[in-house]
């Protein structure tokens, strides 16, 4: 399938600071990309640069064969890119119909009418056509913003935290609707989110940014199964971290030891083990862990546990574990690692916040 968007070695500086560096990314027709990363890593700047609200310093952006670079800085209105901001930016003095009609001035009145009616039906907004934005719920306003962006038939839709103002139950429904809509119209989209569940359920592809660079891009499955570094696994909360001691091929942890065949240790590098909750089990015997937090979820009880001996150099904290058994707060239990394909990562000392 041919690419609708190709970004090559893109760099962007704002007020002499490098905000984006060496960004490479591609999107096929109809593909939906979830862009995630810690606050300030450059997600909005990347969307703004694709949309044409920021100038690029070097590299290129190719949108459906239209090449944008330093020598050809195509203005925003000629890029065929739709943008939906977090606050929807609807015109308050225009009705739903007029908001959607806003960008359609080049078309005849009859063409406009047909197009708007089709979008109102697709988005379930027919009864609201003559209402003003302040008369609509958050979800309805978001639909109007979507309809208005789609009216001009964009090649790509950019969405900056599109669901963040909408309550969780409505959000799921809207996400599914929007995904169907984009797929049925074969429109590619990039959406920024801080919500990891959203990105895993809505995106065909995930790109994780850190300090102005994309550090991993792939399908949700690829990224979840094979995070390529500590930052990716930690940001997406793919599992918990267990300190390890590595001696040649032998790896020791508080929850058990194992061997690895192909670990290369660089000087001064520390490793931690990524432990997904399904690879821990409760067993009888001497306790090694204590329950520090309990919540109830659709997957059963969710526990956060710490090592009993916090002075142990391999002591751990906030180990995530699900069980159908009810444990009590401060209960001491024995956990063990279930053998699996162990994933060790060079360790950083601080973690991200989302
Ligand atoms: N117009 C500007 N001039 C100078 N620096 C800017 C400008 N806009 C953004 N920045 C800086 O660029 C960096 C990236 O900002 P950006 O808004 O793209 O991050 P983000 O990943 O979208 O963050 P968040 O998740 O908090 O929305 C930040 O350090 C920000 O301060």
How does this model look, in words?
This protein is an alpha+beta fold and 354 residues long. 23% of the residues lie in helices and 34% in strands. The chain folds into two domains: 230 residues, Rossmann fold (3-Layer(aba) Sandwich); 108 residues, no CATH class. It contains eight helices and 21 strands. It has a six-stranded mixed beta sheet, sandwiched between helices. The chain has a five-stranded antiparallel beta sheet with strand order 16-20-17-18-19, with no helix packed on it. Strand 1 and strand 2 form a beta hairpin. The chain is globular and about 80 Å long. Bound molecules: adenosine-5'-triphosphate (ATP). Adenosine-5'-triphosphate binds next to strand 2 and helix 1.
Please tag this protein with its features:
8 helices, alpha+beta, single chain, 6-stranded mixed beta sheet, 354 residues, disordered C terminus, binds adenosine-5'-triphosphate, 5-stranded antiparallel beta sheet, 2 domains
Question: Layout of SSEs?
Answer:
Layout: E1 3-14, E2 17-28, E3 32-36, H1 43-51, E4 58-63, E5 66-68, E6 81-84, H2 96-101, H3 109-122, H4 138-151, E7 156-160, H5 168-185, E8 188-192, H6 196-202, E9 205-210, E10 213-218, H7 220-225, H8 230-235, E11 240-243, E12 245-247, E13 250-253, E14 256-259, E15 271-275, E16 280-283, E17 289-297, E18 300-307, E19 319-323, E20 332-337, E21 343-346
Parallel strand pairs: 3-8, 3-9, 6-7, 7-8
Antiparallel strand pairs: 1-2, 1-4, 4-5, 9-10, 11-15, 12-13, 13-14, 15-21, 16-20, 17-18, 17-20, 18-19
Bound molecules: adenosine-5'-triphosphate.
């Amino acid at each position: 399938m041919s690419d609708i968007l190709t970004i090559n070695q893109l760099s962007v500086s704002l007020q002499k600071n490098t905000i984006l560096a060496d960004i490479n990314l591609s999107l096929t027709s109809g593909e939906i990309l979830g862009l995630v990363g810690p606050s300030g890593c450059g997600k909005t700047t990347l969307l703004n640069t694709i949309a044409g609200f920021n100038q690029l310093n070097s590299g290129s952006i190719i949108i459906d064969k239209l090449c944008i670079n330093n020598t050809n800085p195509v203005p925003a209105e000629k890029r065929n890119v739709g943008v939906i901001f977090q606050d929807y930016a609807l015109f308050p003095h225009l009705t739903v119909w007029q908001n959607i009609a806003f960008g359609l001035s080049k078309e005849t009145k009859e063409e406009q009418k047909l197009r708007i009616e089709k979008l109102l039906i697709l988005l379930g907004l027919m009864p609201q056509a003559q209402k003003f934005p302040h008369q609509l719920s958050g979800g309805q306003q978001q639909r109007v913003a979507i309809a208005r962006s789609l009216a001009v038939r964009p090649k790509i839709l950019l969405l900056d935290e599109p669901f963040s103002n909408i309550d969780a139950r409505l959000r799921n429904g809207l996400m599914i609707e929007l995904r169907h809509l984009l797929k049925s119209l074969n429109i590619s989209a990039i959406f920024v989110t801080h919500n990891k569940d959203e990105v895993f359920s809505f995106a065909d592809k995930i790109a994780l940014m850190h300090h102005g660079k994309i550090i991993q891009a792939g399908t949700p499955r690829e990224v979840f199964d094979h995070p390529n570094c500590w930052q990716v696994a930690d940001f997406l909360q793919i599992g918990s971290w267990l300190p390890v001691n590595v001696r040649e091929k032998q790896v020791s942890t508080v929850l058990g030891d194992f061997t690895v065949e192909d670990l290369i240790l660089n000087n001064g590098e520390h490793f931690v083990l990524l432990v997904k909750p399904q690879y821990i089990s409760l067993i009888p015997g001497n306790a090694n862990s204590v329950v520090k937090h309990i919540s109830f979820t659709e997957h059963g009880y969710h526990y956060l546990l710490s090592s009993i001996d916090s002075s142990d150099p391999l002591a751990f904290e906030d180990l995530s574990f699900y069980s159908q058994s009810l444990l009590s707060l401060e209960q001491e239990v024995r956990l063990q690692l279930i053998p699996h394909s162990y994933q060790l990562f060079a360790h950083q000392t601080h973690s991200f916040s989302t």
